[in-house]
Amino acid sequence: MSALVVNEIGLAARGSRSRLRGGGSSPGADPVMTGSRVRQPGEVVRRRESVFKVSGTDNETTSLLVLEGELDVATAPVLLEYLQLLNAGSPANICLDLSGLEFVDSTGLGLLVTMHKRARTEGTSFTLVAPSEQFLKLLEVTGLDGFFDCEFIH
């Protein structure tokens, strides 16, 4: 399992601590609002983990990728790398199982849109399998409902 660390404002980083951007630690710098309280310049911000896992299977014509966890600014590069390796084999069908996906931010959604467009250009089908209600609502709010081919598991 691949685990990456992301700070409270969504910037990818490795390690357990980081300084806030903006203001630095210079005397007299303005405080910065993060989360629910004002932090002083240079104050250490604790991070939360963003966990994402990709596993897959292929046959002669189809590659199925199972996504689990959070697809966000920190974890999207993991999926991108996996999809680029897949494209090297030129499968006729790419299916992404979203049943284990708990969260998608704009970076993750943008990656899915880009990969869908690339697949269409190359004549490959790109299907989202078992999207959650939350993900479908995200597609509706962003105007992307109807953009992706989706399969629902009953």
CATH architecture of the largest domain: 2-Layer Sandwich
Per CATH, the superfamily of the largest domain is STAS domain
CATH class of the largest domain: Alpha Beta
Question: Could you say which overall geometry the principal axes of the C-alpha atoms support?
Answer: globular
Notes on the structure:
25% of the residues lie in helices and 39% in strands. It is α/β, with parallel strands linked by helices and 154 residues long. It folds into 2 domains: 2-49, no CATH class; 52-151, 2-Layer Sandwich (Transcription Regulator spoIIAA).
Task: Produce the secondary structure layout.
Layout: E1 2-6, E2 12-13, E3 17-19, E4 32-34, E5 37-39, E6 44-46, E7 48-58, E8 62-71, H1 76-88, E9 93-104, H2 106-121, E10 125-129, H3 133-141, E11 149-151
Helix pairs in contact: 1-2
Describe the structure in brief.
The protein has 154 residues and is of the alpha/beta class.
List the main descriptive attributes of the protein structure presented here.
alpha/beta; two-stranded antiparallel ribbon; 3 helices; 11 strands; globular; disordered N terminus
